[in-house]
Design a protein that fits this description.
Blueprint lengths: L15 H9 L17 E12 L2 E9 L10 E2 L2 E3 L7 H13 L6 E6 L3 E2 L4 E10 L12 E8 H5 L5 E7 L2 E10 L2 E4 L1 H14 L6 E2 L2
Parallel strand pairs: 1-7, 9-12
Antiparallel strand pairs: 1-2, 1-4, 2-3, 2-8, 5-7, 6-7, 9-10, 10-11
């Protein structure tokens, strides 16, 4: 884990103005997709909250409670399924964020979207990127969210911290991304979307490192 990259605030994309400029003229990036994606996908959306701290931009994550049926205890972005009454994935991402962590839509400056992320569990996830300016107070849904925490964007965007692992499930080898940070282990779809964000912000599509 490259702790030095956590203070990488000199990169041109580490200030709000530069990130706004990147999203105002979006580039084409290759999305990261999981293997064995089923034909029928359920729409979902997440908010990728970039917090404009004085010491540099951070990314806000949630940790799901251990008793949930889907992905218990995992690190994720706030979000969930796109419901029939949601006008768009953006509306769904903001609604779910308010419900899960109490961050109101009016506190989020929408920047744009990343390519949809398709999962082997049957979801088509739209990552919505937004800028959040402190101060703000979170109100966690204690049933769904065990905690919320932030990680420096510079750390997450350093490809040396993005690891590619593989595992054999039912005789088939599958790969997944992981970004360990302290006591937190960011992996799966959340890590995959962060790799896509790096592709967008840094223009790097050489892929993460592999430990296998």
């Amino acid at each position: 884990m490259n702790q030095d990259s956590a203070s990488d605030v000199d990169s041109p994309w580490c200030d709000p103005s530069s990130i706004r400029a990147l999203f105002s003229a979006p580039r084409q990036v290759a999305p990261v997709r999981e293997a064995s994606v089923p034909r029928q996908l359920r729409p979902a959306a997440v908010l990728v909250p970039l917090v404009a701290r004085d010491g540099g931009i951070t990314v806000l994550f949630t940790k799901r409670t251990d008793h949930l049926h889907h992905h218990p205890g995992q690190i994720s972005f706030p979000g969930g399924r796109v419901e029939a009454h949601d006008e768009s994935p953006v509306v769904a991402a903001l609604r779910e964020t308010t419900e899960e962590i109490g961050l109101d839509a009016g506190q989020v400056e929408l920047l744009g979207r990343l390519p949809d992320y398709q999962t082997g569990t049957g979801f088509n996830i739209t990552p919505v990127v937004g800028l959040v300016a402190p101060p703000f107070e979170l109100r966690l849904d204690e049933f769904e969210v065990a905690e919320a925490f932030e990680v420096p964007l510079g750390f997450l965007m350093d490809r040396r911290n993005q690891r590619l692992h593989s595992i054999v499930i039912e005789g088939q080898r599958r790969q997944y991304f992981a970004i360990p940070y302290g006591r937190h282990y960011i992996w799966g779809a959340t890590a995959g979307m962060l790799v896509t964000l790096r592709h967008f912000l840094r223009g790097e599509e050489d892929g993460p490192l592999s430990e296998d």
